[in-house]
Amino acid sequence: MVLLRSSAFALMLAGLVQAAAVKRQTITALSSSQISSYAPFTHFASTAYCNPSTTRNWSCGSNCQANSDFQPVASGGDGGGTQFWYVGFSPSQNTVIVAHQGTDTSEFLADLTDANFFLESLDPSLFPGVPSSVEAHNGFADEHAKTAPTILSAVQQTLSAHGASSVTVVGHSLGAALSLLDGVYLRLHLSTGVTVRVVGYGMPRVGNQDFANWVDSHLGGHVTHINNREDPIPIVPGRFLGFHHASGEVHITDSGVWENCPGQDNTSTLCIVGDVSNIFEGSTGDHGGPYAGITMGC
Ligand SMILES: *[C@@H]1O[C@H](CO)[C@@H](O)[C@H](O)[C@H]1NC(C)=O
Ligand SMILES: *[C@@H]1O[C@H](CO)[C@@H](O)[C@H](O)[C@H]1NC(C)=O
Question: Of the residues 27, 213, 260, 264, which should be mutated to test ligand 1's pocket, given the most ligand atoms within 8 Å of the CB?
């Protein structure tokens, strides 16, 4: 009983300490070296738009040359029924890379505003042990399920071939949503000694409040979603439909500053939710970038 009480007290204290830490965070600009550290991942996300026959042997031209030391292991998808993807090892970043292709901007925006979708619990056979209150967009979850086991085995093979202990999942647009789901999925299936990181560009909202909280507590600090200027995709599906972003936003402002936005869906005008209050204020042309000079697409 005493033990129970003291652990409850400890939990409460930890909560207070955390709340204080959150309060102290401010919106800060990334330094130029922090911004350039994302460039290899931006190129990796862009490369996911290239045909799998060219990512399999890293012959896709300038996108591939931007990460010239990359060692591809597997690739797939047909760009229609299943988005392109690839898996391999980056010696210079010392991480396994998983990348997912995005999709056509205006079609995607229409899909995410027509509300012809719903939130559903994650499939327990793919996401064992995750509470059923954790819900994601049904279309994203279905698309993720198509490639999940194949990608997991390619990741495991690459981790052991290189004795690596880091996996970075990247993607743009729909690819960013799939990357976040892959981040959750890989976190559940890889040993705790392996760091799982997600870097998404123009990521839409993927799940509900419990999903965002699950991501924050299990992948916290390892999720970055980078939003360019007035891109409307990151503000859909709307919060009024029950969707919430996990923490980790970086917003590129009109002046080209990369602002670190603490918390989930930070409403400051320096961050995407405050800057683009509805999709009519958005500019679909901002979705593809440029993200520090890099525009998405093969
Ligand atoms: C946005 O960031 C500011 C500065 O750190 C913080 O005070 C505020 O609570 C955040 N807002 C949300 C909604 O997270
Ligand atoms: C890569 O694969 C494609 C398709 O199989 C082939 O046409 C091309 O010659 C290969 N390129 C290299 C550099 O191996």
Answer: 27
